[in-house]
Design brief:
Residues 159-173 have a biased composition (Basic and acidic residues). InterPro entries: 6-blade_b-propeller_TolB-like, AB_hydrolase_fold, Peptidase_S9_cat. Residues 740-909 form the Peptidase S9 prolyl oligopeptidase catalytic domain. This is Dipeptidyl aminopeptidase/acylaminoacyl peptidase. The strands form eleven sheets. This protein has a ten-stranded antiparallel β-sheet with strand order 5-6-7-8-9-10-11-12-13-14, with no helix packed on it. The protein starts with a helix and ends in an 18-residue tail after the last helix. It is built from 16 helices and 54 strands. Helix content is 16%, strand content 33%. Helix 9 crosses helix 10. It is globular, with a radius of gyration of 32 Å. It has 937 residues and is α+β, with helices and mostly antiparallel strands. Among the domains are: 26-156 and 184-296, no CATH class; 647-925, Alpha/Beta hydrolase fold, catalytic domain (Rossmann fold), CATH 3.40.50.
Length: 937
């Protein structure tokens, strides 16, 4: 009887299993992602948004037991008030409605605007406010929301009807145009509503241009261009404790205000005002400061009284020191003025590139807007009104210490080393200290590559020196500089580029700058910044487990030894991750969670130890989980993709082999969920540097930008192999061959891979290596090479158009790994360039390279394709017009995934050939016919 029951259960299980579907292109849009997850300050509620492909968003609020409290379609950007009584979010118009309006050529400004929703978590009621431009709530207190309304278009026919014939005649008789009412606009301002969330009382303030809440004190500030006799133009401060509204600045309706900022308490306010209503190019900005108890803001500085060679900047951020004794603002150099009398035909349009300029012209061009807004940190001592300039053109970058309370500021310049940076890849700088009270400047460190920062209390400057592979500290009081880790391995042990190894990073400082916590490959070390004495806090090396500090408070300035510290853990061998708690006083820790998952960074409730987090694996979607910092009891909050159980999925496992160089290697092997070891499967090899640490990443079906989707292909009967690559300086192509080829052989030796149907796919650096590999082997049936570099010589002299940087550094020192210039190692450039060996290619090649690629010059893809075309090799080039390194627009991503699947299905599974592969898509048919149709077999 037991045997019969077991047999029946087995049959039922097999029947149920066999009903699982394979993923198709049409199924991809069913998968949802989770965005904007947040937990209420009291930990009682969790809010998140479900994003279903290109469909409308869906916001949900659940309690700590996963009970649904509220949901709303088309909603996003949820936030809780600090008292946990309200949830606020925005609601969009239906996407199909927007699409329909766009088809009717409705202008962007006339499309439906967002709606603000205010949900009362206690009464379960909701208020909606339409046509929202923006909204703000206080950061550290509750009770109010301020929202700015967008313009509401009136019916034009109705407007005409309201103007009587008599009035029209009177207007025409006088020969004047009827002057309409003041309209909301960027210059005039928009109507703002200040709402008391408890009483629901609303105050409307018209023509507001700027508004802000104080962080901690109950004050609200705004600037307005005024409303005739009803509201004066100027800047106002409202005390929301007593509803007192004070006009702190009087100005006309064309005054422009910038950088409206409170001190944390709200007792002080700073702003920049431009009172000039003309179009003069050099704007006469003025700095104003108001303090509680004063009736008006005082003018502190203008362009005439500013330090010589500088002017008041409207772009420099205004901020107060934590103790509110200082105000920091920006000064700028004089504007470069245009001759506005010239017409286009008189303006010289030439670029002058100079060999010894610190920055390449293309970099300068990319940074024009940034440079036009460049400002230099300056301090105002509020008690004495003394102004001290901190950053200058000599030292343009400033780092303020101890939340603005410190008496010294760290300044720096990279200019002496900017020219060489284009080939060294090192951003070195000179550093100095500036006395906040006197402005005295004291140089302290020169030519330091790696970056120097101030400790939280500004007692030390510290950083990691790339050239020396050493953490250093500099005592600001004594002037003593100390190499903290000289001769010790706190640098990347696995560095495989011809460059200085980077550090593993730092966890931060303990209170009062007592100790600096830095990482080695596995562990966390506490280092005394004055003596260099070191203590290891964790014991990860023995088990090859990596410990990293998890910051739970975004405003945390130091690690508090009086509270437990949370670390994430990751085991290099089995790829398990988890959480670990450490008691700094007892110097003991405990593993809280560990397993075959990838865990996210927890998000902690503001008022207690409740957290939300996620875990994921190849088969498990990273749904939101609720717990506290013990992680003993977990509640699954979301269930984003219940449909996954209906589909044939896949499994992920680690595989090992040895390279042709004798190096032990690791990779990932993805098999279909219904895998049968007695069958033969087509295999696609996909790789990029090292990926095996991502064994437990979930890969939901999606229209990816540049690579195959593992779940999609596994569901449809493919095996995917992702090998890690170990590189040897000067020979990146050969390194890929030596690692990948024996890996493929090891997979074939398992017995279930169809050796005659193996494909290869990769993008960018992976795309280059694929271009190289097909010149060295005929093993692969078909390959897709995305944004490849077939010619390292021409690529070396190219520009990364996304940044304007020269590509030289990449070949000499970073990813391309040649290790020198073409005149130093000409044969390395030739041997690693597939363009010189295209006649050896016998594999069909699909190339995707877009004409707005800012990473890899588009002409590289063209060189590859035209070379193959010249030789008559089966090849295709996909160029998504106007797209960067990979297609971003939905329709283009979808198109790429369809063509990629059709390409591999044709070559690796014997599917019918799509029409676009047979005859292309002629230019006259572009955007009309896609050629997806399959030919008859």
């Amino acid at each position: 009887m037991k045997f019969v029951i077991s047999t029946l259960l087995l049959c039922c299980s097999i029947f149920s299993y066999s009903q699982k579907k394979s993923l198709e292109q049409s199924d991809i849009g069913l998968w949802r992602t989770i965005d904007d997850e947040t937990i209420s300050p009291n930990g009682d509620y969790v809010m998140y948004t479900l994003n279903e492909g290109e469909e409308d968003l869906y916001l949900k609020i659940k309690d700590a037991k996963a009970k649904l409290i509220f949901e709303h379609d088309r909603a996003k950007n949820g936030t809780f008030t600090t008292d946990s009584k309200y949830a606020l979010f925005t609601i969009n118009a239906w996407k199909d409605s927007i699409t329909a309006l766009k088809r009717k050529k409705v202008k962007k400004n006339d499309l439906p605007k967002d709606t603000l929703a205010i949900y009362n978590l206690e009464s379960k009621t909701i208020n909606k406010i339409a046509n929202i431009k923006s909204y703000k709530v206080p950061e550290k207190w509750s009770g109010y929301v301020a929202y700015m309304l967008d313009e509401v278009k009136k019916d034009k026919k109705k407007s005409k009807d309201t103007l009587s014939n008599d009035k029209v005649k009177d207007t025409l008789a006088k020969g004047k145009k009827k002057k309409g009412p003041k309209k909301v606009s960027k210059d005039n301002g928009y109507h703002l509503v200040l709402r008391n969330l408890k009483t629901q009382q609303e105050d409307t303030i018209k023509y507001v241009t700027n508004y802000t809440f104080a962080k901690e004190g109950q004050r609200f500030a705004y600037t307005t261009t005024g409303d005739a006799d009803k509201l004066a133009a100027g800047a106002f401060v409202m005390n929301l404790e007593n509803n007192e509204n004070t006009q702190v600045f009087e100005g006309h309706d064309q005054v422009k205000y910038y950088q409206l900022r409170f001190s944390d308490s709200g007792d002080k306010l700073g702003f920049i005002a431009d009172l000039d209503s003309t179009k003069v190019q050099e704007r006469p900005n003025k700095l104003y400061v108001w303090s509680a108890g004063e009736s008006k803001a005082s003018q502190i500085l203008n362009n005439t009284t500013a330090p010589k060679g500088y002017r008041v900047s409207s772009d420099g951020r205004i901020h107060f020191s934590k103790n509110e004794s200082k105000l920091y603002f920006g000064l700028a150099t004089p504007s470069i003025l245009k001759d506005t009398t010239l017409i286009d035909e008189e303006i010289v349009n030439v670029e002058v590139w100079t060999y010894n300029e610190p920055e390449l012209y293309t970099v300068q061009e990319m940074n024009v807007k940034r440079d036009q807004k460049k400002s230099y940190e300056t301090v105002l001592h509020l008690d004495t009104k003394k102004i001290v300039q901190l950053a200058t053109t000599t030292y343009p970058n400033a780092s303020i210490g101890d939340e603005g309370n410190a008496n010294q500021v760290l300044v720096s310049t990279s200019e002496p080393y900017d020219l060489s940076r284009q080939w060294t890849a090192l951003r070195a700088s000179d550093y100095a200290l500036v006395d906040v009270n006197t402005g005295e400047t004291k140089p302290i460190i020169t030519n330091f590559a790696g970056g120097i920062r101030l400790s939280p209390k500004a007692k030390y400057a510290y950083g990691y020196n790339l050239v020396d592979s050493t953490w250093v500290s500099y005592n600001l009081s004594t002037g003593k500089q100390l190499d903290l880790t000289k001769g010790k391995i706190f640098y990347n042990e696995l560095n495989d580029t011809p460059n200085y190894p980077r550090s593993y990073g730092a966890a931060g400082w303990t209170a009062d700058d007592s100790a600096l916590l830095v990482y080695d490959r596995y562990d966390v070390w506490s280092i005394n910044p004055d003596t260099g004495d070191m203590t290891k806090l964790t014991s990860g090396k023995a088990t090859k487990t990596q410990y990293r500090y998890v910051e739970l408070d975004d405003e945390e300035r130091f690690l508090d030894v009086n509270t437990p510290w949370l670390f994430s853990t990751f085991n290099e061998d089995n790829k398990y991750s988890g959480y670990y708690t450490y008691n700094a006083k007892r110097k003991k820790g405990e593993q809280l969670l560990e397993g075959p998952y990838r865990y996210s960074r927890p998000i902690k409730a503001l008022d207690n130890t409740d957290v939300i987090f996620s875990r994921e694996s190849f088969t498990e979607f990273p749904d939101i989980r609720y717990s506290n910092l013990t992680f003993k009891k977990q509640i699954k909050i979301s269930d984003a993709n219940p449909q996954q159980k209906d589909y044939n999925w896949g499994t992920a496992e680690l595989v090992t082999w040895t390279s042709l160089d004798g190096i032990p290697l690791t990779g990932m092997l993805i098999k279909p969920e219904d895998f049968d070891p007695n069958k033969k499967y087509p295999m696609i090899v996909n790789f990029y540097e090292k990926s095996s640490d991502g064994l437990y990443r979930h890969k939901a079906p999606a229209y990816g930008r540049s690579t195959i989707n593992y779940s999609f292909y596994a569901s449809r009967g493919y095996v995917i192999f992702n090998p890690d690559i170990e590189y040897k300086d000067g020979y990146p192509g050969e390194s890929a061959y030596n690692c990948l080829m024996p890996g493929v052989s090891a997979m074939v030796a398992k017995g279930f891979i169809d050796k005659d149907n193996i494909g290869l796919q990769g993008h960018s650096w992976g795309g280059y290596q694929i271009a190289y590999l097909v010149t060295k082997t005929d093993l692969f049936k078909a390959v897709e090479s995305g944004a490849p570099v077939p010619n390292m010589i021409s690529a070396y002299g190219g520009i990364r158009w996304g940044t304007g940087l020269s590509r030289q550094f990449q070949y000499e020192h970073t990813q391309s790994r040649i290790g020198g210039t073409p005149w130093e190692y000409p044969m390395r450039y030739i041997e690693n360039s597939p363009i010189f060996y295209l006649d050896k290619v016998n594999t069909p090649v699909l190339i995707m390279h877009n004409d707005a690629d800012g990473h890899v010059p588009w002409y590289q893809g063209i060189e590859f394709f035209t070379g193959l075309r010249r030789l008559g090799k089966p090849s295709w080039l996909l160029n998504y017009n106007g797209e960067p390194h990979w297609p971003l627009q939905f329709q283009n991503r979808k198109d790429f995934n369809i063509r990629l699947a059709q390409f591999f299905d044709y070559y690796l599974k014997g599917a019918a050939k799509p029409m676009w592969m047979e005859r292309g898509v002629p230019a006259i048919e572009k955007g009309i016919h896609q050629g997806y149709e399959l030919m008859e077999q």
